[in-house]
Amino acid sequence: MLETRALGIGFAAKPTARLLLDRVELRAEPGELVAVLGANGVGKTSLMRTLAGLLPPLAGGATWRGQPLPWHDRAAMALLMAHVPTVRPALPYATVAELVALGRSPHNDWLGRLRPADTRAIREALEGCGIAHLADHPLDALSDGQRQKAFIAKGLAQDTPLLLLDEPTAFLDLANKHETLALLRQLCDRHRKAVLFTTHDLGPSLRVADRVWLLLPGQALQGSPEALAEQGAYDRLFPNGGLRFDSSLADFAPHAPDGRPIRLLCPADQMAWAKIILNRNHFTTSDLSEDYLAHGSEAWRLGLGGVLHRFERLSQLDALLKQQIRTNN
Length: 329
What we know:
Helix content is 32%, strand content 27%. It is an alpha/beta fold. The longest helix has 18 residues, at 174-191.
């Protein structure tokens, strides 16, 4: 188990010295996928760099299976932890297989010679990340999603119990974001690795993570995604950003505190789009409102100000609400 103990994170060098997080107590178990969430500047990347031994801690420490992380022994750290940073090194003319082979460096002799075990680990990493067919392709010829998988494969080939990734879904399109997260989930399930990743893709990450490290200004919380939702912890992420966490969507949505309240009674498969349309038209859902939007066996019903409106398709709701707004104005 990875544990941080009264860990202080920040920058000691003057004149930019500052403490980002103090007395951080977090943990991650083998086989767990941990999403590290937080607003910009709160210390997500600094936490990952501190755990990887690239940024000195300001206080406290961290352990793996009860032993302190060997931050001062780079060779020992390379056998314990693979780190995939946001900024990738430039490797002109290198192929995918050559990049992944670099992950075997901690296991090679000083000449970097590959043994049969290294070749097998490289092949398994390429296959595990679904890019074996790209082994001989130059990195410069890959798409962003393929390149991301190549760097994850390098970390997998390093064969460490811990894998840290800083914003692995950044700059990817929606399909590649979900594919990358599914790959990280697979690495945990198949290889029993503890995988930690920072991200701003909050909704998708909450659907795959076992544990969340939620970084708030000066404070770090942890728990399962659903436990933190039940505690209302996600609402503290963007207190002044016009967003709130919607548990029915397991994602953040625009918050309209001055919106007209309305009760929403509809099937789960219609809930998300109904809320989006209501929010777009300055309504906010409330179980106490006399106005309501409901879906029966054959039609939708909208009760506003004591007037009942019926319509067949949810796509008709937007026009109806806009008409009501214009009438009231």
